[in-house]
């Protein structure tokens, strides 16, 4: 997608297993998302330009990922929680503590109908 749109951006993946078919444009960090705060430290995150589009699709440590990245996000950044039906409790607990700073972008969650997405109420943006 980035290539076809000719976007000048960084695509960074994190996983425990190094992918065998990694595209040359993708940077990769091998690590366990259960320890996200050690993989992408706050100090490291300072070097990435905004706006960010963070996509969580690991199905583990949802609260940890949300808490970690939300502290470094700025207005206009997005975090998307994929396959979120089974993650609603974790997301809801995080959202109840962060509703002043974050909102669900219903333009995208409801684009094809109310929550017609795998990211049910979890296309989240940082408020200005």
Write the layout of secondary structure elements.
Layout: E1 11-15, E2 26-30, H1 36-39, H2 42-45, E3 53-56, H3 62-70, E4 78-81, H4 88-98, E5 102-104, H5 106-109, E6 123-126
Helix pairs in contact: 3-4
Organism: Paenibacillus larvae subsp. larvae
Protein name: Cephalosporin hydroxylase
Please outline what is shown here:
This protein is an alpha/beta fold and 128 residues long. The protein has helices at 36-39, 42-45, 62-70, 88-98, 106-109; strands at residues 11-15, 26-30, 53-56, 78-81, 102-104, 123-126. The model has no long low-confidence stretch (mean pLDDT 93).
Characterise the protein shown here:
This protein is of the alpha/beta class and 128 residues long. It has one domain: Rossmann fold, CATH 3.40.50.150. The strands form 2 sheets. The chain has a 4-stranded mixed β-sheet. α3 links the parallel β3 and β4. α3 packs parallel to α4. The chain is globular, with a radius of gyration of 15 Å. The two termini are 27 Å apart. The model has no long low-confidence stretch (mean pLDDT 93).
